[in-house]
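To whoever is on call:

I kicked off a structure prediction for a single chain this morning and the downstream step that reads the tokens threw a length-mismatch warning. I double-checked the sequence; it's 193 residues and nothing unusual in it as far as I can see. Pasting both halves so you can look.
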Amino acid sequence: MDRSFLFLQASARPGGNSEQLARLAAGQLPAATERRWLDLAELRLPDYVDTRHAEEPWPEQENEESLRRATLAATDIVIVSPLYWYSLSSSAKRHLDYWSKWLSVPDPGFRAAMAGRSLWGVTAVAHREEAVARPLVLTLHHTAACMGMDFGGVLLGNGTRPGQVLDDERAVVRARTFFAREARPARFPDLVE
């Protein structure tokens, strides 16, 4: 099966460090690999409202269907989000919140359709200790596990000012082979003793 990458840019700043790192990694993909870039700031979704148990039908939001179709069309979904308060940006989290709706409406086959696809992350952190990104990594890992997806991991880079991530030599080296890694089935860890 030919791979098709969907890069979901989820930064509050266009052309930021996370996007620059993702574009560097995407540039290493084979030339024939399809790449689609969507900016969640341009395809805004309103705050998610859970109406699964309401009597009224679940309303469709502007941009929602195009994002749902793009998500389903990709074999590989890449969340490109800076680390904001130790987790994903609000637009990335909002996109994932809508997956809760898509599990039921408009087609209850969303989880089955997503199973076996790969979820990846690319993020820039403004802290030298990469461990601060663990909540973001766990969010993506657990999302993949819940959906029966493979998890490719998160490419981390360090940078605050635009372009600074490209000075992070370790991140640049990792970006060159990041998408060549094999994504593995995500499993929930046994957190209960």
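Update from on-call: the warning came from a stale cache, not from the record. Cleared it. Sanity check on the structure: Helices lie at 17-26, 64-73, 90-102, 110-114, 134-147, 169-175.
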